[in-house]
Amino acid sequence: MTVGGSVHFANITGPLYDAGKEFQVGSCSYVGIVGASLGGGVGPYGGLHGLQLDAIQSVRMVTGTGSLINVSATSHPDLWWGMRGAGFNFGIVISATYRVCDFTNNGQAMNADFPFHASQNASLYEFARSFTGKLPDAFSIDMVIAYNEMFGDISLRQLHIRGPLEEGIALIQPISDIGPFKQNITMIPWKDIETSSKFGTDYLACIKGNLHSVWGLNLYQIDVPTLIDAVDFMDTVYQQNPGFRASFLAVDMYATRVTQSIPDSATAYPYRNAVARFLLDVGFTNSSQAITASQVGRDARSLFIPTSGASTNNIEVYVNYGHGDEGMLGWYTERKLPRLDALKNQYDLNKLFSHYNALEAIYNVPKS
Hints:
By secondary structure, this protein is α+β, with helices and mostly antiparallel strands. Helix content is 31%, strand content 21%.
């Protein structure tokens, strides 16, 4: 499958499905395929097919030196390594070619949405923790804390598990036993995973004109007390800042076996060992709220840092979830930077492509 640089996931899921194929999409249909995959590309089908960047076969691009080149394992293999994990640092990608896969489960997936009251959150998080590092390939778990208009100040947690129905029903029985106040368990075409899950709220994340302050962090363990504290934190945010009630805090867990089957040295992507990711999207509509939104994001991230399980003192974050203040060590790691710096000096010496979590960014936030 070859796509242009501005194609969104929503543009390819239907045609792929009609052709009997599938692809490891993300969790939002309005995201660009190339941009997502250059940084890594995580999503619910990653347990089956790995990271999106591992599906890239080649890219056609214009480098910072003005050269139009094809980059692959056999053409500019040095840059090929760097493009997969830090690809927005070296030029403009005109098109990219990806490997696609045959249907899993005849192209059908089980989607299960469960909203819970705040008082039930510990049981939900214990369920998720029990799957740390051993989630079956065909399943994924997304836990979301969001404001619920029905209950006013009570947060809403949602769990999504996708896979074959027979296995899925057995797997989610402990969740049903907790007693969600609503549930939606359906078999859907894989092409509708992004738009049908989360009770069909995919579109809310990409309303044009809305403002977002995004914060992320890698998690190497699931710490239940931290997640419980996060519920209380977000409840307070929603009450004190009604303008932030479109915000959500999510922890996504995708099976890692296939992702970790690729050697760390194969690409510039540095975090194949992460078991989950924290993501906070502080949504707001008035620019005067930006400073407060940033403080909310910083405080929420600080809540998760001490129990993230990271092995360094850097704020380790999947680069596509980065806020922008984590610095190169947080996005790319010390072990990857020497090789990436050499590529930057070769393919973009004048630093023309330095607009997004750039290699020359030198600031790092103290880990606190």
